Each structure stands twice: as structure tokens, then as C-alpha cells.
Amino acid sequence: SENTLCPSPGARSRALAKEIPQEEGEGGSRRSSWGLLVTAGVGGTLVALYAVATPFVTPALRKVCLPFVPATAAQIQNVLKMLENRSGSLVDIGSGDGRIVIAAAKKGFQAVGYELNPWLVWYSRYRAWRDGVHQNTKFYISDLWKVSFSHYRNVVVFGVPQMMPQLEKKLEKELECNARIIACRFPFPCWIPDHTTGEGIDTVWAYDLKHSRGCETKSLEITPETES
């Protein structure tokens, strides 16, 4: 009969009421899943940004801040000019992305860079490999105040004014008299440069430690004995 085949309006309402919460529950579950995915994605991005940014930000929180400012092409050429007729090992203190170390290696130096930022050190190693001088270069992740530079004959420094007095004392204590120190952007406060080249931010000062320290090489003169 019609009564058994067609449900009453009340029955239809009750059935519809049962279906609606179920549909809403499924939609809420999907929205919840998307919310979790978005939260996880944002969280992962923030963690990645923190990992990349921390090495750049942390040095600024130190007592002496040594920020990363890439050397200009003119600065590199001025440094190389100060290295003419020099040989032996070379170290770049605060080597950044490695461009000074790589340029020196191309001139035949066994060049080493010390840099606190691990991302810059890894990038420097890649650049050295790309330019074919990886066998003549080394890059270390290290704090310059915890490293001895006693076995280097050529030292390049890209410093800031706050660190130069302390670094001057450290180098004077550690280096041999035949060492040459090349300062970029800012000179040392007490030493008198032996050579200067460049202008403005590209100025480079070279200090021969035997003059700055007052070392003197004394040669013995042998006079032949005269017959009486």
C-alpha cells in the first residue's frame, strides 16, 4: 500500500536529521586533517629557517660582532697586490664565502680560511671544488679567538674596529717576524702600515711584523784575518 511504500513526513525528517550530523562529521574530519598538515608544514618551514638563519644571527650576539660582508672585486685585487713576491701559507680570518682564500690559492698559496658560520664554510668548499683549487684550500668552522695562527706567514683580516686592538695583540704574540698581516676595511690601531693601497672601503693595509714588532735581523760580518 501507499503507507508502506512512502514514508510519512515525520519519518523523512528523522532520517534526514540522522544523515546530516554524519556528513558534518566527515567534513570536520577532513578539515582537521588539513589543519594538521598546514600546521606541520608551517612548523617545518620555521625550523628550517631557524637552522639557516641562526649561524648568521648568532655572531651578532657575541661581544665582538664579525658580520659577513662579501669582499669586493677591488678588495680582492688589492689583497693580491699586497701578496706579490710573497710565498708560504696563508690564512684568511673570517673567510666568509671563501673568495679571498680561493683567489690566493689560484696564485699558488696554500690557503686556509677560518669561519664561524657553517653554511658559509660548506659553500666555500663547494666554490673551491668548482674552481679547481680544492687541493690547495682548507676551510674550518672555528672561532678565531680559539685558533693559533703561529704557523702562517701571510694573514688576511676582514675585521671590525671593535676587534682590531685585541686581534693586534693576539697576532703580535703568535706570529713569527717574517709574517705579513693584511687588513681590509679597517686598519690596526697601533701598528704603522708598511704598504697601503686602494680607496674608501677597498683600502688595504699591509704590516710586516718585523717592523711593527721591532724585530731586527742581525747579520754577522766575517772579516778575513790580516797577516802581520
UniProtKB/TrEMBL annotation:
Record membrane topology: Single-pass membrane protein
GO MF term (any one): protein-lysine N-methyltransferase activity
Keywords from the UniProt entry: Membrane, Methyltransferase, Mitochondrion, S-adenosyl-L-methionine, Transferase, Transmembrane, Transmembrane helix
GO biological process: methylation; positive regulation of sensory perception of pain; regulation of mitochondrial ATP synthesis coupled proton transport
Major localisation: mitochondrion
Record has Amino-acid biosynthesis as a keyword: no
Region of interest: Disordered: 1-31
Domain of life: Eukaryota
Localization: Mitochondrion membrane
Transmembrane segments: 34-53
GO terms under cellular component: mitochondrial membrane
Family: Belongs to the ANT/ATPSC lysine N-methyltransferase family.
UniProt name for this protein: ATP synthase subunit C lysine N-methyltransferase
Gene source species: Pycnonotus jocosus (Red-whiskered bulbul)
Taxon lineage: Eukaryota, Metazoa, Chordata, Craniata, Vertebrata
